[in-house]
Design brief:
There is one protein chain. By secondary structure, this protein is of the alpha/beta class. It has helices at 7-17, 28-41, 58-71, 86-90, 95-114, 132-139, 145-148, 153-162, 188-203, 227-232, 234-242, 263-269; strands at 20-23, 46-52, 74-79, 117-119, 209-214, 217-222, 248-251. The strands form 2 sheets. Strands 3-2-1-4 form a 4-stranded parallel sheet, sandwiched between helices. α5 packs parallel to α6 (132-139).
């Protein structure tokens, strides 16, 4: 855990901003930021906003609503239109930048009405991977209070645990489009298949997972210690994934890792 992270430092960052709109995906980072912003600034000065689009799993949207109700957050769902952007659909390596641009464009009028700054739950660990969306959001005025206050992922989880937030150990998540290899177009059908397959595997008890979409092939990533269970429950896993429309089901022996589709980019750079 980052030794520089402190709740007081984060509270100071938020207090300096005075009024914020928190981009709220329901993950551990944005949930922690949303709760601290609410507790620090009050509901009148902290609005949490969830981007609603086909790239957000239905279960994630439902959990955002549930968390907002549980914690008394002032919440709003905001439709984003990244699927209308041909460059986003084409799924080039800058796809995340196109997504964050769509997010910021959707949140801009909300933030203007609130006289507020848009804040994202980016932490220090997020700065190392291929994340073009961060630069795009920053260029459009977003701020990253967790980074400024010295929070890495471990610190977010530890402080969330101390505050009693049920999201403290929530598995890492990302938009459904991140399951599709660069160069493969993002379609509504592929997003639905990914969401359905991951929901079905989640119902089987696999918490940290990804279903990477390779056309008719689904490549499952689970934590290494869960690989044996996948094989032991082969028939259940197969039925769960093929029912989502996949013809072939494979298991990645390297196990779960965030951003695994960026590995091809690192290979090109070498």
């Amino acid at each position: 855990m980052s030794p520089t992270a402190s709740l007081a430092a984060l509270q100071d960052e938020l207090a300096a901003l005075d009024r914020v709109v928190v981009a709220f995906s329901g993950g551990a980072d944005s949930s922690f930021l949303a709760k601290v912003a609410h507790d620090t600034l009050g509901a009148g000065r902290a609005l949490v906003a969830t981007a609603i689009s086909p790239s957000l799993a239905p279960a994630a949207e439902a959990d955002c609503r549930a968390l907002a109700e549980e914690w008394g957050l002032r919440w709003v769902g905001v439709a984003t239109n990244e699927m209308d952007d041909p460059e986003y659909v084409a799924n080039h390596p800058d796809r995340c930048a196109r997504c964050k641009t769509a997010l910021m464009e959707a949140l801009a009028p909300v933030a203007a009405a609130e006289s507020a700054t848009v804040v994202l739950g980016v932490n220090l660990d997020d700065l190392g991977d291929h994340r073009p969306g961060q630069r795009a959001a920053s260029d459009l005025g977003a701020r990253f209070p967790l980074v400024s206050a010295g929070f890495d992922k471990a610190a977010v989880r530890e402080w969330s645990r101390r505050l009693g937030l049920r999201t403290w150990d929530k598995p890492a998540a990302a938009c459904l489009s991140s399951r599709i290899p660069y160069g493969t177009p993002v379609t509504l059908g592929s997003l639905r298949s990914i969401a359905q397959a991951e929901a079905a595997l989640g119902a089987l008890g696999f918490a940290q997972l990804r279903v990477r979409h390779h056309g008719s092939v689904a490549r499952i990533e689970v934590e290494v210690e869960s690989l044996g269970e996948v094989l032991a429950r082969r028939t259940e896993v197969l039925n769960a994934v093929t029912s989502a429309g996949y013809t072939y089901v494979t298991v990645d022996l390297a196990g779960f890792r965030s951003g695994s589709l960026n590995e091809v980019l690192r290979e090109v750079d070498q």
